[in-house]
Amino acid sequence: MAEQEEFFPSVPKIPYLPNADPGDVMCFKHYHAEEVLMGRKMEDWLRFSVCYWHSFCGTGADPFGFPTLCRSWNEGAPMEAAKRRLRAAFEFFTKLGVKYYTFHDRDVAPEGSTLEESNRNLDEITDLALQLQKQTGVKVLWVTCNLFAHRRYMNGAATNPDCHVLAYAGAQVKKGLDVAKKLGAENFVFWGGREGFHSVHNTDVAAELKHMASFFKMAVKYKEKIGLKCQFLIEPKPKEPCKHQYDYDAMSVIGFLKHYGLEGDFKLNIEPNHTTLAGHSYEHDIVMASAFGMLGSVDANTGSPDLGWDTDQFPMDIRNTTLVMKTVVEQGGLQPGGLNFDAKVRRESTDVEDLFVAHVAAMDTFARGLQNAVRIIEDGIMAGMVKDRYSSFSRDIGQKVDEGSATLEEMEAFIKEKGEPKMMSGKQETYESIFNRYI
């Protein structure tokens, strides 16, 4: 690394300075990787990851404006730029102190004019990635395949009405799984941005869902064939670019997986910005996925609830991160998943230092969320109140309901004996007041 061009010469390794002034933004004030909470290091609870596409491929362009982010690592011929971009990324990872990164296949290596050329490009670039991983100790949290950007996928990939396109997607995923094994990826993500419809008039929904399930089963078989040891994840999103996406939210995906017998092979990668696009609260899908034992990883970002599209902003709300980390700690962690910053600096934030500031601030925000969550859990006040609220299910007829052995006849007999139930306050304001004390 030292022999290569330095892309961030003015930025040292980000230090932990808990007593730094508010204006000192190039240091961690709360994220202390070695701090132990509930028997585990902070870095192991949080498992931070940097996403490649936004941070190193992003240009700041939007539907109304041209690129604003002029990055030196994007200069040169496609393969030359790909190698410079990768070196810049690993310099960033090491200076930030993050142990994981994520990428799409077409982020790291340019797509060729044929599948064979694309695969050769991937081989060459991932050879360099493997070398840099060995030098730095940085690992791949997850790999995914871009099955939405190329025009061939305009009608979908796994749900395309043309099997020729589905076959191309299958060939691309096959190579993606090979790359995941080569680089030691701990997870593999499927995000179906084009798996849905704009109009039901030209769509056979049942057929498309069946074909998508077949596609996933092919991936499972190939993963087992090559001995790839990683967790498969599906990432829900309700819309954009499709008007309606099949992987609408956590419960939609869980229902799909259970219907097609895939729940043992997949978990969910939840992105809160997608959750709010579905009309839910920030933490909703994380809580629901965890309740079913299906929370595998989190794309840590946020959106603007007043907007109707995916803004992929860095998470800065401590209330939100506290709710997320409370769920994560209660389920015993995210491993082998993590918190991947699927977020981008604003197109107006044009300095390369802004990229560091955004990640540092978001990591501190999640560190504070973790600290808050641990205090909430260790104090046990709210948990005790919840336990008391449901205490009727720990005895008598309630215990039989909880165990699944009660009958409607028993319900009737119970009411005839006990009569009308008493009113019981939900005490929402009390819970909210206590929660705010920890924030």
Task: Describe this structure as you would to a colleague.
This protein has 439 residues and is of the alpha/beta class. The chain has two domains: 36-379, Divalent-metal-dependent TIM barrel enzymes (TIM Barrel); 398-438, no CATH class. Helix content is 46%, strand content 10%. It is built from 16 helices and twelve strands. It has helices spanning 42-46, 52-57, 78-96, 105-108, 115-136, 163-183, 205-226, 250-259, 272-277, 284-291, 318-330, 352-379, 381-389, 396-403, 408-418, 428-438, and strands at 36-37, 40-41, 48-51, 100-104, 139-144, 187-190, 196-197, 231-234, 244-245, 266-270, 295-299, 339-341. The strands form three sheets. An eight-stranded parallel beta barrel has the order 3-4-5-6-8-10-11-12, surrounded by four helices. A hairpin with a 2-residue loop joins β1 and β2 (40-41). α5 runs parallel beside α6, α6 runs parallel beside α7 (205-226) and α11 packs across α12 (352-379). It is globular, with a radius of gyration of 24 Å. The mean pLDDT is 97. It comes from Takifugu flavidus (sansaifugu). Its EC number is 5.3.1.5. This is Xylose isomerase. InterPro entries: Xyl_isomerase-like_sf (IPR036237), Xylose_isom_bac (IPR013452), Xylose_isomerase (IPR001998). Belongs to the xylose isomerase family.
In short:
InterPro entries: Xyl_isomerase-like_sf (IPR036237), Xylose_isom_bac (IPR013452), Xylose_isomerase (IPR001998). By secondary structure, the protein is of the alpha/beta class. The chain contains 16 helices and twelve strands.
